[in-house]
Specification:
This protein is α/β, with parallel strands linked by helices. Helices cover about 35% and strands about 25% of the residues. The protein has 9 helices and 13 strands.
């Protein structure tokens, strides 16, 4: 896989996701009053999942039109457990929660970090991954530590953990927020920004596919866990997802996926 070949297809998918969020037509995954999404999926044999289209290794839409990545493995395993066909909906950091709130998707599997403020508006499952944030710079950059970010322009995606970190912990840096990871990478490549803050896994994927960038040698920022997101108020669906992850996280399939996309075994933290 090459990050560069994902950018065009991923950008198109992000635009489609934005259009979907703005759409005012009836929601595609709405349920009748009191009906759980679990019941709907088991009846319709269809699962609608919000995923990233441009954030390797979590989720990308390849030039062939196929989704692939760490989150895609989880989504497919979930669909298989329900005996359902899967429909992917491309999402961004900013519209993950709106897609849930408006019923456009049944579940979001898109590197959703367990922030307290998010837990006030969306239900989150037990974790399926652990993650921290890092800073990516062009090779040869004089940014060697987080202290060097003062006065520099730093890219992040809107609605992401890095965007929050930049605001709260690096007020002397100049945050430049983009709608998609691909846009942030292009801004760094074209020297419109001095650095890019992203999750370690996404940053590692970018570095693996390009010899232009390097990760600043410093401890990861805001280590956290990552979960599926679902609309508030559907305890039956949340219970099923938690049970699915309890079994999945200790499976060979989970360990294989972790090694393929993140280069390590499933951490004990999430088992």
């Amino acid at each position: 896989m090459k990050y560069t070949r994902w950018i065009t297809a991923g950008a198109a998918a992000v635009l489609a996701a934005a259009a979907l969020t703005a759409c005012t037509s009836p929601t595609t995954s709405a349920t009748s009053a009191g009906e759980s999404i679990l019941t709907k999926v088991l009846t319709s044999k269809k699962l609608v999942v919000g995923v990233f289209a441009d954030a390797p290794p979590y989720g990308v839409l390849s030039s062939s039109g196929e989704y692939e990545g760490f989150d895609i493995d989880k989504a497919q395993a979930l669909a298989d457990s329900l005996g359902a066909e899967i429909e992917f909906v491309s999402t961004t950091n900013a519209n993950r929660i709106p897609l849930l709130e408006t019923g456009k998707v049944d579940v979001v599997i898109a590197a959703l970090t367990n922030l307290d403020e998010r837990a006030q508006v969306v239900a989150m499952t037990r974790p399926y991954a652990a993650e921290g944030q890092v800073v990516l710079v062009p090779k040869g950059s004089d940014i060697d530590s987080y202290d060097d970010l003062a006065g520099r322009t730093v890219a992040a995606t809107r609605g992401s953990v890095p965007a929050t970190i930049l605001e709260s912990r690096f007020p002397e840096a100049k945050a430049s927020l983009f709608e998609a990871v691909a846009d942030s990478v292009q801004a760094l490549r074209s020297a419109k920004v001095d650095a890019l803050m992203e999750s370690h896994s996404v940053a590692a994927g970018i570095v693996a596919d390009s010899d232009e960038f390097t990760i600043v040698d410093a401890p990861e920022l805001s280590p956290s866990v990552v979960s599926f997101g679902v609309k508030m108020g559907d305890q039956l669906w949340l219970n099923y997802l938690n049970n699915f992850l309890l079994n999945y996280n200790i499976s060979d399939a989970a360990n294989d996926s972790y090694n393929e996309w993140l280069g390590t075994d499933v951490p004990d933290l999430i088992k």
